[in-house]
Amino acid sequence: MTDTQPIKTVTALRYVQPLREGGSLPAVVDTDDGLYVVKFRGAGQGPKALVAELIAGQLAQRLGLPVPELALVEINSSFGRSEADPEIQELLRASHGTNLGLRYLDGAFNFALPVGGPLLDEEFANRLVWLDAYVTNPDRTHRNPNLMIRDRTPWLIDHGAALYAHHDWSRVDRNRIRSSFPLIRDHILLGSATRIEETDAAMTALLTPAAITEIVNRIPDDLLIEPRAGDALGEGAQSDPAGARQRYTDYLTIRLEEPRAFVAEIVRARAAEAASPRTPRGVRR
């Protein structure tokens, strides 16, 4: 697949089950279109984590990487009132409006390299390492792979920590946009990214300016509310969706300009790992 999928809007009907693996309390939610794992705008880093999820997920689709179906999930003021947990109640009250869902993968299980590694081919590894370096995603490590396996197919999940520069646009200049992302050294599939230069050519050919614009334009306005300088989110907030979209478009476009430091960093980090391989923490004795 090399095209992004249309993003539907669904309505949350029933809070099913919290997923407490992370700190942002995502949950399985029943909607008028079935079950989704929902990331809430009222959690953790707020709407920007949902924007990162939405952008990275669409980029992955564009690059032929499998991501659960994305949907915008509308939560109204009556949703979840019967939940007994005060923490969940508070989260849902702060999440009225547009949230983000990923289609629930029934029967999927968490990826572990010793077991799931044979299911990942070299092309998948190269594309995924390239994508995570491009979007500065620190969350694909041996400790936390953020991959699921279903029907012998790997699925990418949880990109809320990506694009972390957007949490303070005031400090983002061209040099920071074009930075190398040294954290790629911790990527779980770095050792399998053996053809990164060839992959780079294929990936950049797919991410045309038109494709990037299409992806960014699918971010709904109410996830693009920015606080005024010195204000907490929601206090003195101002809405400039067009300006926010332009910042994301510029960031993603400039990051692809040659020479790409993040590609050189992948090559350097892989060479360092090959010279001195590290045993993943999860399998140390």
Question: How would you describe the overall organization of this protein?
Answer:
The chain has 285 residues and is of the alpha+beta class. Helices cover 33% and strands 18% of the residues. It folds into two domains: 8-103, no CATH class; 113-143 and 165-276, no CATH class. The strands form three sheets. It has a five-stranded mixed barrel with strand order 1-2-3-5-4. α1 packs antiparallel against α7 (209-217) and α4 (122-134) crosses α6. Mean pLDDT is 90; it is low at 229-237 and 281-285.
SS-derived structural category: alpha+beta
Q: How much of the polypeptide forms β-strand, as a percent range?
A: 15-25%
Helix content range: 25-40%
Number of helices: 9
Order of helices and strands: EEEHEHEEHHEEHHHEEHH
Number of self-contained structural domains: 2
**Spatial ordering of strands, largest sheet:** 1-2-3-5-4
Radius of gyration: 19 Å
User: What's the quaternary structure here?
Assistant: single chain
Mean pLDDT: 90
Major sheet description: 5 strands, mixed, barrel
Report low-confidence residues grouped into runs of 5 or more: 229-237, 281-285
- Please provide the count of β strands: 10
Distance between the termini: 41 Å
Task: Map the helices and strands.
Blueprint (H helix, E strand, L loop, with lengths): L7 E11 L8 E5 L2 E6 L7 H16 L7 E6 L10 H8 L3 E7 L5 E2 L2 H4 L5 H13 L12 E4 L2 E4 L17 H4 L18 H11 L2 H9 L7 E3 L9 E3 L1 H14 L6 H15 L10
Parallel strand pairs: 1-4
Antiparallel strand pairs: 1-2, 2-3, 3-5, 4-5, 6-7, 7-8, 9-10
